[in-house]
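pasting for the record
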Amino acid sequence: MAASAPRAAHAARTPHAGSTVLTGARVVLPTGTVDGGRVIIEGGRIAGAAHDDTASLDLSGHWIVPGFVDMHNHGGGGASFTSGSVDDVLKGIRTHREHGTTTLVASTVTGEMDFLAHRAGFLSELVEQGELAGIHFEGPFISPCRKGAHSEALLRDPDPAEVRKLLDAARGTARMVTLATELPGGIESVRLLAEHGVIAAVGHTDATYEQTVEAIDAGATVATHLFNAMPPLGHRAPGPIAALLEDERVTVELINDGTHLHPAALELAFHRAGAGRVAFVTDAMDAAGFGDGRYELGPLAVEVKEGVARLVEGGSIAGSTLTQDTAFKRAATVDRLPVEDIVQAISANPARLLGVYDTVGSLEPGKDADLVVLDEEFSVKGVLHKGEWVIDPQVG
């Protein structure tokens, strides 16, 4: 969370931004950073020209970057996307939006198939309303050897018929399914997902290097939180990590919270895959933006202490309390990554994977006016979502 938190905008005082020119900031564009640049907002979209009487806002000394895109997120603000009501889910969305995530996919955790199918129908309505960018099913088709914070009793092999059941229940809003592709039915399920335009993600897996290569050849294109919940990289048994890093067809998720990854692991991923194949995700659970305490992740009890979520029984890491603004700030100040590379990983790359890069993920004319204003220390000072200020810029 930003050290000096900006003020959340209230509905009564956040009219549509209308025609506004944001001036003076360092603006990160697909072609590079422009010092003293301008971003012109017209009717909720980024425009290429402005009228003479257009209002302007001087953001000198700040950065303007595209709104963040999170394709792996289980909740926040005390609310779960797997079990919460409509109001709960909207609260979770708002929590992450206030931290700069203007495009968000709701991730579910392992549960009974009928429950997950029902939940998919529930969440699909929020996708259709534009509140969510899609649904990600993390489990139940994962390895009991690498289950992490998933209930082993509810795990199952990835039967293509059951995978199809979830896709049908989601009514075209499913964007990604995480699979242990070495399990019976795994490769067939990857092919099914690819045929339906849904991302097959390799994760919570005990696969060998060779089995992972087979999955990629079948159509898997994402590594679910690379390094976590999979065999470690070995010099004789390189396992899934090497296969996922080396293949140009694969984008690797990274949870940059300082707990899930050592900085050297993050550096290795960027060095081997390049900024164009990394997607920062939060894997956030209810506690994100809410605080320490007892929570539930699916049927499992979680204790959050000093911002780290672990299962009460067994102590496995249980998602994160991360928000994307913290991931951005850490990447810039601790990992010392170029801001342009961070923007690729936190906005452009996930937007492309989700098939929404035509509307979000970069600051270009015609796209939604989704952007984040950061100060020189990379703390959030403003968030604009579809032309409306979620966080009023606190400048000057």
